[in-house]
Predict the 3D structure of the following.
Amino acid sequence: MSIPATPPVAQFEGGCVFIDGAYAPLSEAKVSLFDWGFTRSDVTYDVATTWKGSFFRLDAHMDRFFSSLQKMHLAIPYSRAELREILHGCVRAGGLQDGYVAMVCTRGVPPRGARDPRMAQNRFYAYALPYVWIASREKQLAGIDLHISERQRISPASVDPTVKNYHWIDLVQSMFDAYDRGHDTSCVVDAEGNVTEGPGFNVFAVKDGQVFTADRGVLEGISRRTVLELCGKLDIPLHVGPLPVDALRNADEVFLTSSGGGVLPIGKIDGKPLPPFPGPVTTRLYEGYWALHDDPAFNDPVDYGSEG
Ligand SMILES: Cc1ncc(COP(=O)(O)O)c(C=O)c1O
């Protein structure tokens, strides 16, 4: 399938979707009621970001997306180079500098009455919106209050967490657990009581200058990977293994990682303050994360053309 010519800059001010092989305004964002992506969460996706007009680690996001597609028996009618062009096109047409850029593939709509997923034609969607933060700036400054929910993340034996998925009922319900108790956001555990992840982020603990994060039951976040690499570069001791709830409760520092904000320091665990906030290790990783946004090796500038 071919893709349309490069769209004009800011053709659709404020964001752009790519549906049915064409760029369109956000008002045309829709999926069929009969798409299994909607009725069965039979979908995979990825979210990259642009910062000051440049994609951050786009290759890593595309690698993860293509790997997820393969694991899900899904396919898109575009090559990697075409996918890149579409994502750039969405940002360009949406007139965005700091963007949230999603690529989505659903199972699609099988012929009426058919129950065999192989009979469905997979559907590809992409869109670019203004950058989305996991928490508002005010919350970040005040110190995000993280609730450790007793709710379990869907088992990795059922749904492969390394495939970025829409199985979010556990995560969304854990957010209500947090709100009901007066906290800002939440993370969930696994069957053994280890901390896994939260709605849109991985979780890290720092104890005695050493960094700990879960090795299982989590999406291998691209921001998580960036932090793991930074620990190596900055000589910060790192442990990737089971992360017991008590390790989080007794940590000196806790932070989240997400494309929606990079390294996000946590101010309180279940209402209990974590002084100092933000802690020294978190601060080094936060600064390292944002410094990489000026490193050409991690960036893919959007072509805004002569109009940009
Ligand atoms: C469940 C879950 N875990 C972790 C993450 C963090 O991944 P990344 O750093 O690639 O944004 C996300 C991102 O949306 C997520 O949805």
About this structure: The domain at 137-294 is CATH 3.20.10.10 (D-amino Acid Aminotransferase; Chain A, domain 2).
